[in-house]
Design a protein that fits this description.
Blueprint: E1 3-6, E2 24-27, E3 33-36, H1 42-48, E4 58-61, H2 66-69, H3 72-81, E5 90-94, H4 95-110, E6 112-113, E7 116-117, E8 125-129, E9 132-135, E10 138-144, E11 158-164, E12 167-171, H5 179-188, E13 191-195, H6 209-212, H7 217-220, E14 223-226, E15 243-244, E16 250-251
Parallel strand pairs: 3-4, 4-5, 5-8, 12-13, 13-14, 14-15
Antiparallel strand pairs: 1-2, 1-16, 2-3, 6-7, 9-10, 10-11, 11-12
């Protein structure tokens, strides 16, 4: 049986509130591990679970914000130069995300590789994904997320839809409130992990709790909320949701 574990369930600016950034770990029954997003605090959130870089087999990156990809430098250095067997983790990302990953997020700190210059393949085994990818027998479909826009284009950002143990799972990644666009994915899923902002003043780039409360009851009934800010949270269960995801929470 596979296990999905939230190493953290907080926002990009989670600090000192007993939580970590929203990075997830999928572990198969033979202990193969796929990390879904790799933020800047990943070495701490993994360590808290008794795990390290060598325990990861593959990584999926949803987009280029640091709370989702900023830990790749640590991961790449650890697996390339750390003690023990050297390996390059498989690295999955949508084509549009992969295109900017090295030049815009990693190159400045990782270009120098001993006695030569490096590129992304020096540290990882990258796989640019168009629509879906397969890992350990599970097919992960990309779900376009409307997170940030300059008025003409959307920042490349993709959630995931996949099935485990006969249950269909939707992971939204960072997304504005977009019920019409996400409706087919909402209805198809048995379990939804929804990006949810809980600040009093909505930022406009994440789905806000107040807006999500307006979703149909049957959608809320299968929805867990994550990527939240610190401080007290509303009573999500009373509002018809499954609840707020806690740090370290596991789903079998």
């Amino acid at each position: 049986m596979a296990e999905l574990r939230f190493l953290g369930s907080g926002s990009a600016f989670t600090l000192g509130d007993g939580n970590w950034q929203s990075n997830l770990l999928l572990t198969t029954n033979d202990n193969r591990r796929l990390l879904i997003d790799c933020g800047t605090d990943i070495r701490f959130s993994l360590g808290e679970q008794g795990l390290g870089a060598a325990d990861l087999n593959a990584v999926y990156i949803s987009h280029l914000h640091a709370d989702h990809c900023g830990g790749l430098e640590w991961l790449g250095f650890s697996t390339a130069f750390g003690p023990g067997v050297k390996k390059r983790p498989r690295l999955f990302a949508a084509t549009g995300v992969m295109a900017g990953l090295w030049d815009h997020a990693l190159k400045g700190g990782m270009e120098w590789f001993g006695d030569r210059t490096a590129d992304l393949t020096s540290y990882f085994d990258p796989v640019a994904v168009e629509a879906a990818f397969s890992w350990e027998g599970t097919v992960f479909r990309l779900v376009p997320a409307h997170h940030l826009s300059d008025g003409q284009r959307w920042m490349p950002c993709f959630g995931l839809a996949f099935a485990l143990g006969g249950r269909k799972v939707l992971f939204t990644a960072d997304s504005q409130f977009a019920p019409e666009r996400l409706a087919p994915y909402y209805h198809d899923a048995d379990l939804i992990f929804q990006d949810c902002e809980t600040e009093a003043a909505p930022s406009g780039v994440h789905a806000h709790y107040r807006d999500l409360c307006g979703l149909p009851a049957d959608i809320r009934a299968k929805m867990w909320l994550y990527h939240t800010q610190g401080g007290p949270h509303p009573d999500a269960a009373a509002a018809g949701f499954k609840g707020f995801v806690a740090k370290g929470q596991r789903f079998d």
